[in-house]
Amino acid sequence: MARKKIIAGNWKMNKTPSEAVALVNELKPLVASDEVDVVFCVPAISIIPCMEAAKGSNINIGAENMYFEENGAYTGEIAPNMLTDVGVKYVIIGHSERREYFAETDETVNKKVKKAFEHNITPIVCCGESLTQREQGVTIDFIRQQIKIAFLDVSAQQAATAVIAYEPIWAIGTGKVATTEQAQEVCAAIRVCISEIYDQATADAIRIQYGGSVSASSAPELFAQADIDGGLVGGASLKPDFGKIVNYK
Ligand SMILES: O=C(CO)COP(=O)(O)O
After folding, report:
1. So what's the ipTM on this one?
2. Where are the alpha helices (DSSP H) in 39-95?
3. Which atom from ligand 1 is nearest to the alpha carbon of 235?
4. Which positions are annotated as binding substrate (predicted)?
5. What CATH code would you report for 6-246?
6. Which residue, of 63, 117, 147, 170, is most buried by count of CB atoms within 10 Å of its CB?
7. Is 196 a catalytic residue?
8. Is the pTM of this model over 0.95?
């Protein structure tokens, strides 16, 4: 079945709100496309101004993180209904930088994924192995574990609408993009894992992105793979190059 590609930018901790608005305005004409879903995941403080700037365009403004409680004494966190109240439909969950620097675990990722679905926000669920894990030959086992825990108690109906981002940690921000074969192999294994947890229809529906040093030159071949349904793009999403990535064909 044909899955619509989804190409998302992860701005990470870059751009002040006014710089963010300028970037949305700059990229707006470049990322125009009827063929793919386009998402800019921006720092929380820039979500509202970016939404305003993106009005009338095909750009969806998403969040980079969200907490798994509804409200309360969680200083510094952003609740799901704060996101939905301003129209956010996508949130990145469990990025490797959150896992590494902010102590996120497979269990907190699972709580956040469930909470996002409760609020009808599409989670972009991140997974990915370290260089040591790849060298030790445990990549697929490790990714399967991350996926199985992330989707605990998530229904097939919900999972079918999710986005998974496969981001090998060694390829993030390093300029070292995984080979097309490596990326396709793991994305295919993720789809098999989803078919085992749920069924083939769910596996056929779920969208799986590749992320890690995606550039205008690597995107066309990566996105042509059978199990790669788009990309989660860091550095190159902050540049006019992102327009080329979106219009990779
Ligand atoms: O972490 C990433 C996207 O979430 C990838 O970042 P880069 O594209 O900068 O390698």
Report:
1. 0.99
2. 47-54, 80-85
3. 9
4. 10-12, 173, 213, 234-235
5. 3.20.20.70
6. 63
7. no
8. yes
